[in-house]
Amino acid sequence: MHFVLTLHSHLPYVLNHGRWPHGSDWLCEATLDTYLPLLETLLDLEEREVSAPATLGITPVLANQLASPGFQEEMDAFFRQRLQACEEAPASLQETGDEELLPLVGFWRDHFQGLRSFWERLDRDLVGAFRRLEERGRLEIISSAATHGFLPLLGREESVRLQLTVGAAEHRRLFGKDPRGCWVPECAYRPGGVWDPMPGVSRAEHRQGLETFLHDAGFRYFFIDTHMAEAGESLGWYGDVPHGVERFDAAWEGETRQDRPEPIRSAYQAYLVGDQGTGAGVTAFVREPLASMQVWSRHHGYPGDEAYLEFHKIRWPGGLKFWRVTGPDVDLGGKGHYDPVRAGVRASGHATHFSGFLGHIQRSQNVGPSGVAMAPFDTELFGHWWFEGVAFLGELFRRLPYRDGVVPVTASQHLDSFPPQHLLLPLEGSWGANGDFSMWLNDGTRWTWERLWRLEETFWETATSVPDSGEHRRILAHAGRQLLLAQSSDWQFMISTGAVPDYGEKRFNLHCDDAEGLLEALKPGAPAQVLAAAREKIPELEERDDLFPDILSCMAQVLERA
């Protein structure tokens, strides 16, 4: 059985949008907690000649930020702030009578100093370091939609194409090769058929399946959640199913759940989705449910172990963490002190257990040599949310060579070894709550889609008639960037979860406002004051949202297909 570990790295564009709590500090914290430790671990495994063929997704919007000189300056400042907190902590702890925590201050000081030295040895270039690892055959880097837009709900097919065209182009620019795989944002898929997600507001029309857009953009595989490939309840329906293609159990009609046959599809198989007659298919990897839950779940998996660092309890001033999980029902006031050595032992033990668990899956699920267990996770789970998670990954790759029947490979290595089976996906779905689109389209976010769909209509109508002048093309490029930024699925997610709804609303409205203002200046006969306002806005946008330099050429490609 092949084991494909897939790490999905993504943050919305926060650079130049403040620092704390949801500005550049968010990006710097993910770098300090996850990206640097992960890269350090992968390089250590390479030095020790341990195979660690991870499939690493880095979204274009994140890669643009990591490659920015502005991010490097922010990261340098963040390191200074973290180390200053360590310098100030002893006096603060003595004042509050918490001297027993002093050894942990030394632990954090050494940890931060080590990562800063590593950062400087990399010449502060994370993108280049990951790129060189791929060039040496140590991992596979895949791309995504430009700003992590929720593709099935975008109002215009041109918008879907632009997200994916920019995604592929930016990957080539930053990583030097065509991306073979695409992390479709939120694992959200829709098949071909009549599209009308909000009757009376959206424009009902026939749409192609998402696999068509992926194929046209040059991608050859993507990822879907488990319920999409097993006999789960239908989460949506898009009209008639063509004959001659085997259907999921969820597509059966006129039968009760009890009357339906046993599932005939497995989560341990890659499937070719699309028209096999024309060669326009794209492979779908299926999320493996058992292994994913074992690692991901705080309540049922490893991250909830009582010895691990407690994410939610932070000491102020300084922002250092001194406590462990302690127990699943222990409130923050009852948390015990963290022991890094004990936590490290637990991470090593859990890696041993997980390698055995993969072997158990291979035997209990009767997965043959051509089968695949694809385990996808947000990269930030490891190190940021689960502090010991990166060490767990390193230990796991050290143990897998001794586990018979389980072979770690990249997604492309699996596809090159075993051809996928053909399959029709008649369902829509995602890896969000309820397995559908409700996390992103609900009563609380309905207004965002109403505004975004109108903006899309205006943008694409305007883009086809913009005068071929330097000034007008420059304004159009910035309007395109603002459209892409407004389409980020992060904003609806923030609103729906209720964690930071104000920030999600603010950022969504900001990018819509700016796009609408620029498009007004591109209308034929626009008043002089409107054009002047656009001219004045451009320098601000060039400094604030400095990404996707080749967006005009990507737009041209999209319009050629329209």
Polypeptide structure, described:
The chain has a domain at 442-561: Families 57/38 glycoside transferase, middle domain (immunoglobulin/albumin-binding domain-like, Up-down Bundle). Helix 1 packs parallel to helix 10 and helix 15 (501-522) crosses helix 16. The strands form 3 sheets. Strands 1, 2, 3, 4, 10 and 11 form a 6-stranded parallel sheet that branches. The chain is an alpha/beta fold and 562 residues long. It is globular. 46% of the residues lie in helices and 9% in strands. The protein has helices spanning 24-47, 60-66, 69-95, 102-121, 126-135, 157-175, 210-216, 289-296, 340-364, 389-399, 411-417, 446-463, 470-486, 489-497, 501-522, 528-544, 551-561, and strands spanning 2-9, 55-58, 140-144, 182-183, 193-195, 205-207, 221-224, 271-273, 282-286, 372-378, 407-408, 421-423.
